[in-house]
Design goal:
The protein is α+β, with helices and mostly antiparallel strands. It has four helices and four strands, in the order αβαβαβαβ.
Length: about 220
């Protein structure tokens, strides 16, 4: 009988020890889980805080971008206004220039009148005589006059070549006026129109001869 009681007592003690061990294990595991939960919660809070800061920074950047866009739009508007003003000013200047420099008269030197030959910029004597008749009366003008010399060609050949040929013809006239009458070069302007602005159709020999010309305009 005593042996039975002792056995029961030992069994109860063993059961109690096992229960205590289990509780301690559970407490330990629960503690570990709580620590992990707390760590995850803290990390989540930090992430949320960074997200809020990033959102605020993005919002601030968007505001600044909007301000830059507004400034750029204002600058474009100002530039367009300035360009319009400049164009208007140029137009007014051209109008004033046209009023100041009036065409007094002009002389045309063309092949059909025995002047420039085909594909040639040499100034013939007949052309020099016409220039003499034009310039001599102007030498008495104390204020001087402005000469505008335009060179032309027919439409035979390449356009680039004709533009150079027209300029060579105008330059030949300019050189003669300068060397013969010592007219200051600042008062002599030259330009080439090449085959542009024909005075006669280029479909005939006579028409092409008339288009090979130099026009001398005298402006006051």
């Amino acid at each position: 009988m005593r042996l039975f009681v002792v056995a029961v007592s030992v069994a109860a003690l063993a059961a109690g020890s096992t229960a205590c061990a289990t509780k301690n294990f559970v407490k330990e595991r629960v503690g570990q889980v709580n620590d992990k939960v707390e760590s995850v919660s803290k990390s989540l809070e930090e992430t949320q805080e960074r997200t809020r800061k990033n959102e605020a920074a993005i919002a601030d950047a968007n505001v600044k971008i909007g301000q830059v866009d507004q400034k750029a739009a204002a600058a474009n508007t100002a530039a367009a206004g300035a360009q319009t003003t400049a164009v208007t000013a140029v137009g007014k200047a051209d109008a004033v220039d046209q009023k100041v420099k009036r065409i007094l008269y002009q002389v045309t030197l063309s092949e059909d009148q025995g002047n420039f030959k085909f594909d040639d910029a040499t100034l013939p004597d007949s052309a020099k005589a016409k220039i003499d008749d034009l310039v001599k009366p102007l030498l008495a003008n104390p204020n001087g006059n402005y000469f505008e010399i335009e060179g032309y060609t027919d439409n035979v050949g390449l356009r680039d070549y004709n533009m150079k040929l027209g300029l060579a013809r105008a330059e030949a006239v300019k050189r003669y006026i300068y060397e013969q009458y010592h007219v200051p070069l600042v008062r002599i302007g030259v330009i080439s129109y090449g085959p542009d602005n024909p005075v006669s159709p280029n479909t005939t020999k006579d028409g092409r001869a008339q288009n090979r010309r130099v026009v001398i305009k005298v402006l006051d």
